[in-house]
Design brief:
Largest sheet: 8 strands, parallel, barrel
Strand content: 15-25%
Radius of gyration: 24 Å
Bound molecules: 1-deoxynojirimycin, calcium ion
Shape: globular
Number of strands: 19
Structural class: alpha/beta
């Protein structure tokens, strides 16, 4: 793999609205990010992914952009953005913005002009189609629920396409003029010194406009036509054009939100000459211990998670790097998602991030993950703001769940849990704002907050700092990035273990999701006694030394270990 600057990325994702407010309006802002840069540097991150801060009516908290070349006043100004880029750079941190180019806001000037003249220049920036038989052009379902087509107000039989909410009309990527416009926008931002972009919904740019209705997948007669709206043949032409015209000239780091990358597409998407630097590995995002299929079975789910992680790595097979993460703004918190109530303890919550942090790839943490922020279940749906969360609730009711059952499902998986304000300290509103926060702070902030953990050397925060420092240690970093991956002990239920190996190091990572001790013969972990004797313990979640004895390793409940193996055998197969 040809070496690139961004291979060394340890990223930190910020949801600006909930990160830090500095002017008392209850909404996080860019000055808030600047204020907290020290904390991100102390964690050891060197890239920040900033969720959208462009002007927006905020129907989808910024994923509905009404002007791609400015900053929403609620977040600050262009000057603030420039200041953030510069101050982050001083700390060795590069900023990624979030490019939302599959759709714009319906309030974008382009769309407003398009509505006035759907058959003119800007009409061709969007997807307008005539309806059929008194209804929409076909029965496609929007990803956020309901029909993917919305009737154009004041027109007899004209509809526009929106894969997300109706306030997010899809842009027409078949139009070269639109593509050129997006490339220009990217280049202008890159000139301001950005590190690159995270690319929202990027696998949906190309659609297969087939007007036949598809077999319904629900009682409403609609169909989520994934094969027609995701990873459609011809998508790569758009992506390569983007790369050549917009990203390559400034050597940008680009991370695609790319659903369902097929094995045969790996090379074209993230290979050496692929469209993106990396794509998020979503192999674990369908795991939630409270989904009916797992029903509280942490262990069963953990085994499935492990197998999918290794499968994703096998498919990529060293041809590129996946982006490994556990949390983002679209998922609830990992402690609540991966661990049943009785399985949450100081050991298990430290073990979780180790599972994928040392795999090949670049790694991302999400704000609040480093202090173990938790879901905040609500007593009523009125306390949720997010439109898709409400749509999902309605879907549950339609499927016959009682209101209590539907609320339970929402409470155990809404993406809005990850959007509660960042818990900085124990003062009112967790130090997030002096005003009224836009979304309620989790009341656990009185004991679960950044300041308290910063003072406590045994806290989760300090564990995360250690985690990052091991990942970035100069004599180990290359092994973690480019070393071979050798999965270990895959037939052992509850154990996720792997080795990373190159000519310099041999590093063993072992994690356990077992609530009891487990004896592993050392040979099974492929670590002979000689190797163990000269080894260096890089990371552990117990205070006392690992239990190696008489050729066996006794793994304690929820233990995780990262060990640089020593001895003569280092570097051999
Ligand atoms: C994916 C983003 O991560 C999500 O938050 C957003 O709602 C959709 N794309 C639509 O832009
Ligand atoms: Ca503010």
């Amino acid at each position: 793999m040809k070496k690139q600057w961004w291979h060394r990325t340890v990223g930190y994702q910020i949801y600006p609205k909930s990160f830090q407010d500095t002017n008392g309006d209850g909404i996080g802002d860019l000055q808030g990010v600047i204020r907290r840069l020290d904390k991100i540097a102390a964690l050891g991150a060197n890239v920040i992914w900033l969720c959208p801060v462009f002007p927006s009516p905020m129907v989808d908290n910024g994923y509905d952009v009404s002007d791609y070349m400015d900053i929403d006043p609620c977040f600050g100004s262009m000057e603030d953005m420039k200041e953030l880029i510069a101050k982050a750079k001083e700390k060795g941190i590069r900023i990624l913005m979030d490019l939302v180019a599959n759709h714009s806001s319906d309030q974008h000037e382009w769309f407003q002009k398009a509505l006035r003249d759907p058959y003119g220049k800007y009409g061709n920036y969007y997807v307008f189609r005539e309806g059929r038989a008194g209804g929409p052009p076909n029965n496609w379902r929007s990803i956020f629920g309901g029909s993917a087509w919305e009737k154009v107000p004041g027109r007899e039989n004209l509809y526009y396409l929106h894969l997300f909410t109706k306030q997010q009309p899809d842009l027409n990527w078949e139009n070269p003029e639109l593509r050129e416009e997006i490339c220009r926008i990217i280049r202008e931002w890159m000139e301001l010194g950005l590190g690159g972009f995270r690319l929202d919904a990027i696998s949906h740019l190309k659609k297969n406009y087939d007007y036949e209705d598809l077999p319904a997948d629900g009682p409403d007669g609609l169909c989520l036509a994934f094969d027609h709206i995701n990873n459609v043949k011809g998508l790569s032409d758009f992506l390569l054009e983007l790369k050549e015209k917009a990203f390559a000239p400034s050597d940008a780091l680009t991370i695609g939100e790319y659903d369902n990358m097929k094995p045969e597409d790996v090379e074209a998407v993230i290979g050496e000459n692929g469209s993106f630097s990396s794509v998020f590995d979503f192999s674990h995002t369908h795991h939630n211990v409270y989904y009916p299929e797992w029903n509280g079975d942490t262990l069963g789910m953990f085994n499935d998670y492990r197998d999918r992680l290794f499968e994703a790595q096998k498919v990529v097979d060293g041809r590129g790097l996946l982006c490994n993460f556990l949390e983002n703004h679209d998922k609830n918190r990992c402690i609540d998602r991966f661990l049943a109530k009785e399985d949450r303890n100081p050991h298990s919550i430290r073990m979780l991030p180790v599972t994928n942090f040392f795999l090949p790839g670049i790694v991302f943490l999400y704000q609040g993950q480093e202090i173990g922020m938790r879901d905040f279940p609500k007593k009523s749906m009125d306390e949720y703001v997010d439109a898709p969360t409400h749509a999902e609730y309605e879907e549950f009711l339609k499927k016959g769940l009682t209101p209590e059952e539907a609320l339970f499902r929402i409470n155990s998986n809404s993406r809005e849990h990850s959007r509660t304000p960042m818990q900085w300290d124990g003062s009112e509103n967790a130090g997030f704002t002096t005003g009224t926060p836009w979304f309620a702070v989790n009341p656990n902030y009185t004991w679960l907050n950044y300041e308290a953990q910063e003072k406590d050397p045994d806290s989760l925060l300090h564990f995360y700092r250690k985690l990052v420092s091991v990942r970035r240690r100069p004599d180990l970093e290359e092994t973690f990035i480019y070393g071979r991956l050798i999965p270990r002990l895959q037939d052992r239920s509850g154990i996720l273990a792997y080795e990373r190996r190159d000519e310099r190091n041999r590093i063993l990572v072992v994690t356990s999701a077992l609530s009891e001790e487990m004896r592993l013969p050392l040979a099974e972990a492929d670590a002979t006694e000689a190797l163990m004797n000269e080894s260096e313990l890089l990371l552990d979640n117990y205070e006392t030394a690992p239990l190696f004895e008489k050729g066996e390793l006794t793994l304690r409940p929820w233990e995780c270990l990262v060990i640089r193996l020593g001895g003569k055998e280092r570097g051999t197969d």
